[in-house]
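FORM 7B: Structural annotation worksheet

SECTION A. Query
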Amino acid sequence: MGQDITLSVKVLDEENKEELIGATIFIPQLSIGTTTDINGVGIIENLKEGTYGIEVSYIGFEKLKDNITISSTSYTFTYYLEESEESLNEVVIQATRSTRTITDIPTRVEFIGGEELEEKALMNSTNISMVLRESTGIQIQQTSLSSGNRSIRIQGLDGRYTQLLRDGFPLYGGFSGDLSIMQIPPLDLSQFEIIKGSVSTLYGGGAIAGLVNMVSKRYYV
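SECTION B. Predicted structure
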């Protein structure tokens, strides 16, 4: 039994002579390999004396094959890889600046109001859960049996990711996901505006799932 041998392989770009980080070094007959580190060096340990076939490859470069013979305790090899002719073309990303703000970008808003709202208010005038539970993609989840607290889940996300607004202003200081909607009667509301999907850019992290805006009735004297 001979001594264990450590093989060190340095991989460079042939054109720029720069180290290639993450290049693959593989010895097929032993089915072992490694990848190069930040210095472009890959190390394979516990080899025995002999001749081995070695494959060096990297994305966008031609695969290199070589036969090496090792007999002492440590060996270092350096390989230069050529760029492949089938490498990916350069990707150019262009952007155009405009004066349009994010608040002007159209967003799909669902509307509940009129006769539908009045019908649901008559069926359950104590809270808004009856109004919202029949809307697609919205689930009313009871979070407390003792107090009857419920949260609004949009598209399966947790209730804390649904923002509740009243006339465009956050209810409960923006933490409505963990509080009850029992205290919100639908009798003094004229309509519901529902956005399903993330609008956190405009309304903060509480609106990752979406938001429900409750518009109050306006009385004129």
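SECTION C. Observations
Residues 108-216 form a domain with the Ferric Hydroxamate Uptake Protein; Chain A, domain 1 fold (CATH 2.170.130.10). The first strand starts at residue 5 and ends at 13.

SECTION D. Sign-off
Analyst initials: ____
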